[in-house]
Amino acid sequence: MKALKETYKKDKFLHHAYLIEGEYVAALPELKVFFKDALKIEPVGNPDVIVQEMETLTIDNTRALKEMASRKSFSGGKKIFVIGAHFFTREAQNSLLKLFEEPTPDTHFFIITQKGETLLPTLLSRLSRIAITQTDNVEIRTLAEKLLKLSPGERLRDDTIKDIIEEKNKTRATLLLDQFVKALHEKEKVTTKNIRLFEELTKCRGYLNDRAPSVKLILEYTLLVLPQG
């Protein structure tokens, strides 16, 4: 993601279609920061910024995307599409290929998936590829490490997750829980003694995927059950 920021800062050119290779929950927050800081586009509550996540991108999904892309932006400026998917049907890929062969002016796509090699070579040739590196997770990882060093009471009084709670940011909350799990796995093996903790963290992560989860309650509960150190 750093390469995208530096390239745009240098020449102010935005490709019509990008392939972001990495975890959706890691890439989306970084993209939103890029939209807001570099492009001066508000990513939240903006009808010109369409964000969709799905398990499989189908031909019906791409037809809907083509229809939305053909419409004029509400602001008269850029229209942004962020699409996260684990799998892409061949029909959907061919449909995307046609869309990217004749791109709509001021319309930009950011396709997020873990492995770009699963896509058709012809589609890949139309995409500007960007890999998510470990440095893209530094902020969340640092936050997770800091909170783990505190006692449960100190965590609840700490205001470092205030922004995540106030924005009801499910993406960053999910990423934070992932970092907690990763940190705990690195520190100790999963045993019958602590397996319940990992099960609780998995449940909390699942609750964040509900339609309208309480990010505040889920994070506060997580901070209470996590061990110190």
Q: What labels describe this entry?
A:
single chain, five-stranded parallel beta sheet, elongated
Give a short synopsis of this structure.
51% of the residues lie in helices and 15% in strands.
Question: Can you describe this structure?
Answer:
The protein is an alpha/beta fold and 229 residues long. The model has no long low-confidence stretch (mean pLDDT 86). Helices cover 51% and strands 15% of the residues. Helix 2 crosses helix 9, helix 3 (59-70) packs parallel to helix 4 and helix 10 (195-207) runs antiparallel to helix 11 (215-225).
N- and C-termini, Cα separation: 31 Å
Which percent bin holds the helix content? 40-55%
As laid out across the biggest beta sheet, the strand order is 2-3-4-1-5
Number of helices: 11
> Which class do the helix and strand fractions yield?
alpha/beta
What oligomeric state is this? Answer: single chain
Unreliable residue stretches: none
Strand content: 15-25%
Task: Describe the largest sheet.
Answer: 5 strands, parallel
Q: Whole-number radius of gyration?
A: 19 Å
* Mean pLDDT, all residues: 86
Shape: elongated
